Amino acid sequence: MGTIREVLQKKSKPMNSLDKPIWLNQAESLPDRNFITCSEKKLVDLVRKHGEFTKADLVSYTDYSRTKITNCIDSLLNKKIIVTNKDTEYSGGRRSKTFSLNGKLGLVAGVDIGATSIDLGIADFSGMFLARYMEPASVKDGPIKILGRACSLLERILRDNNLSYEKVKGIGIGVPGPVDFSMGTLISPPIMPGWDSYPIIQTVQQWFPSANVVVDNDVNVMALGEINQGVGKGVDNLIFVKIGTGIGAGIICEGRIYRGAKGCAGDIGHIGVNNSDTLCPCGNKGCLETVAAGPAIAERSLKQAQTGKSPILLKHYEKNGKILHAEDVGNAAREGDPIAIEVIRESGQFVGDVLASLVNFYNPEMIVIGGGVSNLGNLLLSSIRQAVLLRSLPLATRDLQIVFSEIGFDAGVIGAVNLAMDYMFSLSTVSANTNGKMRSDS
Ligand SMILES: [Zn+2]
């Protein structure tokens, strides 16, 4: 395929419901669509969430009768959405069949566009990754260049791994800025010149016309990665917090991303923090980001180092060519530097204070901390935990887990693949309903 072609932005009316994105009609005309009923979708969701399932498992996880489960399984097998595995379990003296998603249904690509990198992965429908690739790229180069590069990289990875271009049924894309999910566009992203309202979906569909393309904010996408293949696998109510050059949160509510009215729920980096009057690029003073994100940690430490209070931090600063990164502060803390330890502790407390309010408000089962600054280690985590425990209601923190991400930077690509899967299955269900093809649920 040649160079990327810029497409004219369509003037489209926004939809009222986030569950019916505007590009639904376009996607409905795609070939080989598999429509599923709401009941079938519920079983598909369970299989995606837990992996292999027996009929008995499905009965126990739903309020459906055994007959209804049998009908749904037969229908999903006919549509080739699930497959029967080898007999694996005994149940009542005989082996029970297990079912899982049919990996051969097609390919799904995950694209994680970061501020300084493009990270790509291709998985089959069972969620198994077949190829991965990452390379540095500046998002400031603009959408034409970056999307063109992402698409041509996808083509190359497919070719290099003998994977069929036409089998790509879905592409999920995470971008580092606020996304209007119903439109699939970025809205005034602060670090992405040229991306405001750019038609990402239509551009990518010019390269991959047979794919359903869906775009979301990178933190939401990482949260999806955590509940699908990370430490939060199977957790229904979770907050994922990314602490890097900025701070943001992805909210998982009852197993799904909660995006809010306009798609910007979870933007906790701009919640005001007490006793800080640092000016934030958003125009307000004392935002969480300005005191607890990577640059703030480095800047506060540098100020202290330059007063001569921390020879260790000064050593890192000189060694780097007069630059101090949050990572250096982490290293200094591990070397026992009291200033670095104090700065990390303070930052953890600021994050923890904000999270305590969220815990009281939302009562999650788990908070997962990810992003570059999470490399600062257990000192940061324990400060966050301490602040949350101190300021949250005992009932809300009784079984609350606050943990670091275990999949780290992979969360973006894993989440992007699952974003596309979620979208395709919900689209199939919406279509089944709107086309009147839905089987009776009684
Ligand atoms: Zn702000």
Structure, described:
This protein is α/β, with parallel strands linked by helices and 442 residues long. The chain folds into three domains: 38-101, Arc Repressor Mutant, subunit A (Orthogonal Bundle); 105-225 and 410-433, ATPase, nucleotide binding domain (Nucleotidyltransferase, domain 5); 233-404, ATPase, nucleotide binding domain (Nucleotidyltransferase, domain 5, 2-Layer Sandwich), CATH 3.30.420.40. 41% of the residues lie in helices and 18% in strands. It contains 15 helices and 17 strands. The strands form five sheets. Strands 8-7-6-9-12 form a five-stranded mixed beta sheet. The protein has a five-stranded mixed beta sheet with strand order 15-14-13-16-17, sandwiched between helices. A three-stranded antiparallel beta sheet has the order 1-5-2. β3 and β4 form a beta hairpin. The radius of gyration is 23 Å and the shape is globular. The N and C termini lie far apart (49 Å). Residues 1-32 and 433-442 have low confidence and may be disordered. The structure holds zinc ion.
Provide key terms for this protein.
alpha/beta; 442 residues; Nucleotidyltransferase, domain 5; Arc Repressor Mutant, subunit A; disordered N terminus; 5-stranded mixed β-sheet; 15 helices; binds zinc ion; 3 domains
CATH architecture of the largest domain: 2-Layer Sandwich
Please give the radius of gyration in angstroms.
23 Å
Q: How confident is the prediction overall: mean pLDDT?
A: 85
> What percentage of the residues does DSSP assign to strands (E)?
15-25%
What is the helical fraction, as a range of percent? 40-55%
CATH topology of the largest domain: Nucleotidyltransferase, domain 5
- Please list the strands of the largest sheet in the order they lie side by side: 8-7-6-9-12
Report the uncertain regions: 1-32, 433-442
When the domains are counted, the total is 3
Largest sheet: 5 strands, mixed
Count of β-strands: 17
Bound molecules: zinc ion
Sum up the overall morphology in one term: globular
CATH superfamily of the largest domain: ATPase, nucleotide binding domain
